[in-house]
Amino acid sequence: MTREEKFFSDLGRSGIELNQSQKEAVAHVGGPLVVFAGPGSGKTTVLTCRASYLMQVAEVQPRQILIVTFTKAAAEEMQNRLAALPGIGPLKAQSCEAGTFHSIFLRILLRTYGNVPRLLNEWEQKQVIRELLRAEGQDGDEEAANDLLAKIGLCKNNLILPQQIRPKKKENVEFKRRYQQYEDWKKNHKRWDYDDILVECYRLLLSRQDVRQQYASKYRHLLVDEFQDTNYVQYEVLKILAADGELCIVGDDDQSIYRFRGARVDYLLSFQHEYPNAKTVVLGTNYRSVDPIIEAASSLITCNRKRHPKKLTGTGKQGELPVLEMPEDERSEAEQVLERIEQRIQCGDPVDDIAVLYRTHMQARALVDELVRRKIPFAIRDAEGSFYHQWQIRDILCYFKLATDPLDLDSLMQIINRPKRYLYPDAWMAHIATADLDSEQRSYLQALMKLPGLEAWKRRKLEDLAWDLKKISRLPPKDALRLIRKQVGYDQFLEEYAERTGQKKEHLFEPVDGLEQAVLPFESVTDFLLHVEAVSETLRNARKSERGIRLMTFHKAKGLEFRTVFLIGLVKGMVPHGKSLKEKDADASLEEERRLLYVGITRAKERVFLSAPQRYRGEPVERSPFLDEISVTARKI
Who's near 580: CB < 8 A, 6+ residues apart? Predict the structure, then answer.
């Protein structure tokens, strides 16, 4: 028995039976290798077995193997699974270097320089951005900070620094200025962010031949997972590190969904052009899903033109076609989904093996509202589901709160200049703090009207606000919201804000339009505020929980699997998303949107429910055109 035969025999005795394609990917030595790994095709098993093969059959030293993953958890799982393989054990597994791009690049920098500037964590980054925005009178809210940081990260991942940007549009001029402010702040405070690790490692390897040679000779075999998510700077560094070694990449062009972060599926698709002698292996057997789900997903993704041709097959597991349901609106959709979930639980599905997926976190609003009302446990990630925490929604809620509690000073400060009333807190806080709020004047707003030296036109604005708040307190929330938007002038404020900041008006209005539907079930402003508080409290607990129905976006679901999956809000304008289709390369955006839905469908092991409401945010809508590309059982409710 040869060494290779013994290797695969030992794997088999340990319960790992590889198919022919998997064996090819594991055993290829002597040149570059590209592995196209479809959903549920066992790519982690292949990667760990390949590392084991290199050590045990090809006699490669463990320290010469570098395994690159996209998350810390994936790197840890890889080393744990490697350690459990026959003939490896913890010592050899730990001797292989494994980690994310950031962790590996940081090690290179630390080994070379000894230390690097202290790193800003995500929360600190947001605080810096908020301070910069607020210093100029802008809203330093979480969404604005996230948006700006995402754009800065995209630039850095493409090695584009502020001085290289030549903007023409107003919003791009503003972005360049803020990007430069952020970089200046870090330089002045001797700090880096995590994207700086990538940029600085690239600079180091480009400028130092000795360091280049050191690492090119150190890493004889590089194994890269999720290669379709690689960005420009990561790929450039990889090519330097693999200059004298063998590069093995594993990925799925059909699951490339991070273009907004700078990921380029072209690197996977053109790998053979970059490395003409590379061997190609396709892992096309899906061990996760029943055949009807695989067939439905395949019929969808084959509509993409820019992809590596591959045939995806199952293992003969029978099941039902995905079900398409068309409820009346978002609330009906939420009720229908929960009824289906209750049926699945009664049939024996564990509650945490059920997931509800959506394109954007705002789409979770109706579902979260209904879950809270029914007191059904759920788990949700990070900021997802935080519809009521968006700054526009917080503004409206402050109007509601001030209408029901005239002594809510925080709410008064929040909305006093939304729309503009030219009353800035630094000019009146001292007066308010010392105001004698007697029984006839239990209102900070009334006290503000007596501000010494207040011009008559400003007083009239305050009187109008007081009158509007009185009306709001007596109206049902749907009418109160309409009054705030039109009569008080909040819509006009958003339009002016869009013009001033260069943001898209429709994006600023989206949360407020969604709120129109959220308030409908409630008879009073007070009832609605109590509901919002209950939602906020439930979300705080849900983010810490690992038990309950899983709620997440398509992006967050990547890499996970569930027995039953619900995909909601599948309407034109959301899937594909209208924003993405307005980008420069609309064809590439459309294909990525199709890949997102493909990722969502392929999370399911046994059953998929697709939902396309007939009305969305109060308006008639068309179902997603992607649904016409999938074999489904349609059911109108």
Answer: 589, 590, 592, 593
Cα-based angle 217, 222, 227 (whole degrees, multiple of 5)? 140
Which residue blocks in 443-585 are alpha helix, DSSP H?
444-449, 456-474, 477-482, 490-501, 505-518, 525-542, 554-557, 578-581
Query: Catalytic pick from 6, 44, 107, 629?
Result: 44
Residues 6+ apart with CB under 8 A from 480: 399, 400, 403, 471, 472, 519, 525
Residue type, 17: E
Q: What is the pLDDT of residues 477-524, one digit of tens each?
A: 999 999 999 999 999 999 988 887 777 788 889 899 999 999 999 999
**In the 8-state DSSP scheme, what is residue 251?**
E
pTM of the model: 0.89
- Phi and psi at 503, nearest 5°, equal -85, 160
Task: Give yes or no: 285 in active site.
Answer: no
Residue environment code for 232-262, b if the CB has 16+ CB neighbours within 10 A, otherwise e = bbbbbbbebbbeebbbbbbbbbbbbbbbeeb
Query: Is 603 a residue of the active site?
Result: yes
What pLDDT, in 10s, does the model give residues 98-127? 999 999 999 999 999 999 999 999 899 999
Query: How far is it, in rounded angstroms, from Cα 232 to Cα 224?
Result: 15
Q: What is the pLDDT of residues 24-59, one digit of tens each?
A: 999 999 999 999 999 999 999 999 999 999 999 999
Which one of 100, 181, 255, 392 is the catalytic residue? 255
Scan for tokens 């925490």, then name that residue. Answer: 389
Q: What is the pLDDT of residues 342-381, one digit of tens each?
A: 999 998 889 889 999 999 888 888 999 998 888 888 888 7
Q: Is position 225 annotated as part of the catalytic site?
A: yes
Told to judge if 503 belongs to the known catalytic residues of this protein, a careful annotator would answer no
Nearest to 75 by CA among 116, 103, 52, 49: 103
Task: Given the residues 92, 331, 594, 603, select the one marked as catalytic.
Answer: 603
Q: State yes or no: pLDDT of 168 exceeds 90.
A: no
Check: CB of residue 592 under 8 Å from CB of residue 378. Answer: no
Distance CA 609, CA 630 (A): 12
Residue 561: its pLDDT value, please? 94
Q: Judge whether 41 and 284 are in contact, CB under 8 Å.
A: yes
Find out whether 574 and 595 touch, Cβ atoms under 8 Å: no
As a whole number of angstroms, the distance between CA 582 and CA 574 comes to: 13
Given 23, 43, 331, 421, which residue is catalytic?
Answer: 43
Catalytic entry in 225, 333, 335, 593: 225
Any catalytic annotation for residue 44? yes
636 is catalytic: no
Marked catalytic residue, from 24, 196, 226, 369:
226
